[in-house]
Amino acid sequence: MVLISGAGFWLFAGVVGLALALMGVIPLQPALVLGLWLVLGIPTFLGYPSARVKRYAVREQDLLFHEGLLWKSTTVIPRNRIQHIETENGPVERWFGLVTLKCYGAGGQQADLVIPGLNEALGEQLRQHLLDQQADDQAGTEGDNGDA
Amino acid sequence: MHEVSDWSRVSPLSMIHQGIAFIRQLAGTNPGPLLGLLAGAYAFAQRSPLMLVTTAVTLLAAGLVLLVLAWLRFQYRVSADTIQVQQGIFTRQSLTLEFDRIQNVRIETPIYLRPFGLARLSIESAGSSSEEVHLPGIPTAHAETLRDRALASHADMDTDGDSGSQPEAESAPQHLLSRRPSDLVIYGISSPAILWGGAILASILGAITRRMEEAGSDLEPLRALAERLPDSVSPGWLVAAGIITLLGIMTLFSIVMALVRYHGYRLEKAGDRYRLHSGLITRREQGLRQYRIQHVRLAQSLVARLFGRHHLTCHQIGMMQPDQPEGGGNRLMAPALTPKEQQQLLAHLLPGLPWQTLSFSGVSWRYMLPRLAFWGGLWLAAVLGALHQDASFWILATAPVPPALIWLNWRRQGWCLNGEYLILRGGLFGCHYTVFAGFRAQTVRVYDSFLQRRVGLANLATRLGSGGFLLPFIRWHDAEMLMDELLYRMETSNAPWL
After folding, report:
1. Interchain contact, B490 vs A81, CB within 8 Å
2. pLDDT tens-digit map of B130-187
3. Which of B62, B413, B428, B490 lies at a 20 to 30 A Cα distance from A116?
4. Chain A residues within 8 A of B446 when measuring between CB atoms
């Protein structure tokens, strides 16, 4: 997904830039344009391998997300700390039937845990699952409070 | 049993408050453009005074009309367990806040409302800052009853949870701390607010010099001054004197701010509630419940270190605000604590933490590598530039300064896990500690670069409701252990963590 949206742009940009340089419209060496294109495009070309290593895990008590090729990171958010959950899909994601799941904790502006590129059905299922658990938790703690 | 009372308005004197607040916001956030505007208006006035006067009068009149409309449209109503507010001139907003959800109540009495016995009541909900109710200009007694009512209904539901040690919320208040003016002066000298003063000064100076350049007056007066000085005074000394004067002004500004802000400081504890009174011009009353404290920060700058003092802040949920002389509304400050006072206060704030006997683990020496590489690169570029342009070589002499600072900073980095508390240490000349209980965390992230991985290092980032903290370059096993420990605390604790 990342690869396709990014590569679409970069392939186009590269071809146009090279063509313009060859025709002499922009006063730069074609080789320089090619080099620039390659350097700027690195994140895009790494899109596929980096998407391959993005993975998530749903455990009994928490949700994990792992990503990174050279800079690896593992993020964990316990279910009882999730304040709300959002699923989001832009036009390109919608075209491919994908969603991005975002989990928010309290007191922050940004999502604490983001899982991109889930199947729509799976994303919805996951969201529902996490929400259910949240409801259970709250009912549970409130019950405890009542007893105490 | 309380029937719903009717909508009521705040005192019309609140308009003064709103007007002043508006001007303060305008001047406080960025005085540069405002000064520019004033200077522009002045230049314009010389050309057509009549036009300017009519513009000014129109603006003032429009402002007044808006203030009156805003006052007319601002209504509030208190029922048994909610408070409702309606406001807005063009779009009407209506906000209902349940007393159970209230996180914090603040009463402020600005000097211009004090003679009329009025106060400003701020009620914050546990959610975002947009869910805040401000009632400017209600009678002080009314504000206090409202506060007590809001907090009383809150106390009922909080008797569970982890605290549980004090059964009665409203026992006799216990005096914890008061500050003498000398303490506040120390705080003024050593607090980060000094930088804030510097920022204001810089932006004012920037605006002035810009105006001067535009006016074409250049630096003529300064040059004239320099010529009149005796030869023994070199430009270098002049610059030094200028810097010292600036520092002096900033320090003075900071001291005055500290004295005004924390005059009559009194910190009390009643049950599990801390209450803080302070302020000269605007008298404030802040309250904070023990279990609301997310993290405690104990900071010591270089100057504070010379005096042997620490500044303590208790943070609750909300985004970290930059250090302001006003001090954010959602944290409790204890300035310039002596070691003894610090120990007493910590015993209340972090019960069961043996502060004196903590032993910290440092971080790997490789922490310095990326920083050294960055500064080395910068220095190399500077040297190359100097070689190229044949500039003065004293820049070479500055080489050992950044590495020394980096080394100092590395020495300060550390962490300690004691019981349920995690303590992070950092700093440069001074030292600062961040303490929080493990179950307060919300997210944990362990990450490492490929270079760190080769030598078995990782970084640990945790986020609390009150901000995020980073523990860099620790052993991978420690990071893993800390992550597991935090997750265990989070997932097994039933205590309210916000």
Report:
1. yes
2. 567 888 888 888 888 888 887 776 555 444 433 333 344 456 788 999 999 999 999 9
3. B490
4. 73-74
Partner-chain residue, chosen from A76, A107, A145, that has the shortest CB–CB distance to B319: A107
Instruction: Locate B249 and state its tokens.
Output: 């002004």
**Residues B335, B341, B346, B352: what is their CA dihedral angle, to the nearest 10 degrees?**
180
Best CA proximity match to B361, nearest among B310, B411, B419: B411
> For each of chain A's 148 residues, which pLDDT tens digit applies?
444 445 556 667 667 777 777 776 666 677 887 888 788 777 777 888 888 889 999 998 899 999 988 899 999 999 988 988 989 888 888 888 889 999 998 877 788 999 988 889 999 999 999 888 766 666 554 444 333 2
Is A76 part of the contact surface with chain B (CB cutoff 8 Å)? yes
> What are B71-127's pLDDT values in tens digits?
888 988 888 888 888 888 888 888 888 887 777 788 888 888 888 888 988 887 765
**Nearest chain B CA: its distance from A21 CA (Å):** 32
3-class DSSP state of A32: helix
Q: What is the largest CA-CA distance in chain A?
A: 81
Instruction: Enumerate the residues of chain A whose CB falls inside 8 A of the CB of residue B485.
Output: none
Pairing of strands B118-125, A98-104: unpaired
| B173 contact partners, CB below 8 Å, separation of at least 6 | B268, B269, B270, B275
Q: Is the pTM of this model over 0.95?
A: no
Nearest Cα residue to B443 out of A39, A103, A19, A40: A103
d(CA B265, CA B238): 40
Type of residue at B197: G
Binary contact (B442, A113; C-beta < 8 A): no
What ipTM was estimated for this complex? 0.79
Distance of CA B423 to the CA centre of its chain: 21
Q: Are B198 and B257 in contact (CB under 8 A)?
A: no
- Under 8 Å CB-to-CB from B391, ≥6 apart: which residues? B385
Burial of B354 (0-12, 13-18, 19+ CB in 10 A): exposed
List the beta bridge partners of residue B469.
Answer: B462
Q: Which of B328, B366, B347 is nearest to B475 (CA)?
A: B366
Copy the structure tokens of residue A44.
């895009």
> Which residues of chain A make contact with B465, given a CB cutoff of 8 A?
105-108
Backbone angles phi, psi at B43, to 5 degrees: -60, -40
| Cα B467 to Cα B461: distance, rounded to the nearest angstrom | 11
Distance CA B63, CA B56 (A): 10
Going by C-alpha positions, the residue among B302, B301, B312 that lies closest to residue B339 is B312
The SS3 of residue A69 is coil
